[in-house]
Design a protein that fits this description.
heterodimer, A: alpha/beta, Aspartate Aminotransferase, domain 1, Aspartate Aminotransferase, domain 2, 12 strands, globular, B: about 160 residues, alpha+beta, two-stranded antiparallel sheet, about 30% helix, Aminotransferase (chain A), Aminotransferase_I/II_large (chain A), transaminase activity (chain A), pyridoxal phosphate binding (chain A), PyrdxlP-dep_Trfase_major (chain A)
């Protein structure tokens, strides 16, 4: 039988309607050029701390190459439980309340798929990490963007949440410290959001993967708030603070019933996280505090350098409290975010990410990552300054 | 417990960093950085500035020996008098008082094995109070003062990512 449907028509509707990431086109432009200094990579430039690599190698040498339990190695779940308690004061049962996943991205996807019914609305704040909106859609939910702006330091407010919450709102997704703005919540914000979630009976997915990377005050976790452990899926992973991006190791902590639901999907899809990576993660969580501290100290220095240079060259910029991103305002140049990024790339070989890749309210901003080396940051800033100067001359 | 000033750590990593760069990294001003450095120098906390050199890559003759020394401590002076006396030899680059099977650990350099051997036999071993020496010649340096003498392979990274 001759089937006339094109391959495109065979793709499911939800996926077909999903736009490509705003970064994707830009990525191809960058890849076509040599000698680019990139502030566009949301990844630490450090190799994984040696103690973690060594533990992983040791695990491989001793044959730790088989599947683990679907939930993850018991020793790792115990290490996660101790770590989370140490950082937040909240205790999760390693037997039933912790799930080890393939990166925090998988944990996020599992939570969305396990918790959303078709038509349920999920709130998330913009500018945001590029996956949030699509992951909600892929789970059958309806994403509702809560815009945040520089006037409140890109922190979500109760007033904006109130405006965006409706009858079908089931879930609130938070990411603080934040990619791409570097915003971190203050204790008063966390208390306010927690009160809102309790009053509206919302489930909260709190992506705290940058929780170790705060610079001016300690991270304030949502699960530490009264009554929040019961309604929160706490998401975290090893990629950022321990510089373990390629290990693909994340975890979720939540009430047993929610973990059980997420685990059902996980066991039929991923089955389990890579065992050698889990062995490395145990070492990182148990003995990696000093490595994290030294990387955090270096990020702090890079943040200070990048921020003071942006201010000096006339690009207003919120000084980030966390993560390793900042978003200077380039709106006064008369260029759109995309124009700015493309011209900076073509004329000065510096890659930054247009703010619109993270939502429409990112227009007028570009995201710069300060996880690049200090030498690269200084060289990129020189070029950006020269770019702005040439732009002024030509005007 | 007090922690080391971040300025000292940065200078330990790279003493050539300019006050302007240091000020930016530490979120302060150049004058503050200059003053703190001057204060550390005056108090003898910063005792010098040196480059970490991979001598294996240099086309010069340098031999380094690590020497374990057992000594008899002296009344009223303990180990200090002999240790301070040994530390004045220009051949001695570093000297530590140790716990364990021997008392002093020396790092000694010379142009040839013979030169180091002569230093040990003629100058070091003949000092009154020194009971024995054990000399180990260093063959290759992999790490010195916290600095790796080899580089990690460059791994190709993405130029742009979420």
């Amino acid at each position: 039988m001759n089937d006339s449907r094109s391959p495109r028509d065979r793709v499911g509707r939800v996926v077909r309607d999903l736009p490509r990431s705003g970064i994707r086109d830009f990525f191809e432009l960058v890849a076509a050029r040599d000698n680019v200094i990139s502030l566009g990579v949301g990844e630490p430039d450090f190799a994984t701390p040696w103690r973690v690599r060594e533990a992983t190698i040791f695990a491989l040498e001793h044959g730790a190459t088989s599947y683990s339990s679907n939930l993850g190695l018991p020793q790792l779940r115990r290490a996660i439980s101790s770590y989370v308690k140490r950082r937040t004061g909240v205790e999760y049962d390693p037997k039933t309340e912790i799930l080890v996943t393939v990166g925090v991205s998988e944990a996020l996807d599992l939570a969305m798929r396990a918790l959303l019914e078709p038509g349920d609305e999920a709130l998330y704040h913009e500018p945001s990490y590029v996956s949030y909106n699509p992951v909600i859609r892929l789970a059958g939910g309806t994403p509702v963007a809560v815009e945040t702006g520089s006037e409140h330091g890109f922190r979500v407010t109760r007033a904006r949440l109130e405006e965006c919450t409706g009858e079908r709102t089931r879930l609130l997704l938070l990411n603080y410290p934040n990619n791409p703005t570097g915003a971190a919540l203050e204790p008063a914000d966390v208390a306010e959001i927690a009160a809102f979630a309790r009053e509206r009976d919302l489930l909260v997915l709190s992506d705290e993967i940058y929780g170790e990377l705060t610079y001016d005050r300690d991270h304030c976790s949502l699960i530490s708030q009264p009554g929040m452990k019961e309604r929160t899926v706490y998401l975290h992973g090893m990629s950022k603070a321990w510089s373990m991006t390629g290990y693909r190791l994340g975890f979720a902590c939540a009430p047993a019933e929610l973990i059980e639901a997420m685990m059902k999907i996980h066991q039929y899809t991923m089955l389990c996280a890579p065992t050698p990576s889990q062995k490395g993660a145990i070492e990182a969580l148990e003995n990696g505090d000093e490595d994290v501290e030294s990387m955090r100290a270096e990020y702090r220095r890079r943040r200070n350098v990048m921020h003071s240079r942006f201010e000096a060259m006339g690009l207003p910029c919120m000084r980030p409290d966390g993560a390793f991103y900042m978003m200077p305002w380039i709106g006064d140049t008369g260029m759109t975010s995309k124009e700015f990024a493309v011209r900076l790339l073509e004329e000065k070989d510096v890659a930054v990410v247009p703010g619109t890749a993270f939502g429409e309210c990112g227009e007028g901003y570009v995201r710069c990552c300060f996880a690049a080396s200090m030498d690269h940051i200084r060289a990129a800033l020189e070029r950006i300054e020269a770019f702005l100067a040439s732009e002024k001359v030509s005007q | 417990m007090a922690t080391m000033d971040e300025l000292l750590r940065l200078l330990q990593e790279n003493a050539l960093e300019t006050p302007e760069n240091l000020a930016q990294m530490l979120d302060t001003n150049e004058e503050d950085v200059r003053q703190r450095i001057a204060d550390y120098e005056q108090r003898g906390i910063i005792r010098g500035y040196q480059a970490v050199i991979d001598e294996d890559r240099l086309d010069v003759d340098v031999v380094t020996a690590v020497i374990e020394v057992k000594i008899t401590p002296q009344r009223e002076h303990g180990f200090n008098e002999i240790a301070e006396r040994i530390s004045r030899f220009p051949e001695v680059q570093s000297l530590f008082l140790m716990s364990g099977a021997f008392d002093l650990l020396l790092f000694v350099t010379g142009r040839t094995l013979h030169e180091v051997a002569l230093f040990v036999s003629d100058k070091l071993a003949t000092i009154e109070g020194i009971n024995s020496t054990a000399t180990h010649f260093m063959l290759k340096t992999y790490k010195q003062n916290g600095v790796l003498m080899h580089s990690e392979d460059e791994y190709e990274r993405l130029q742009v990512s979420p």
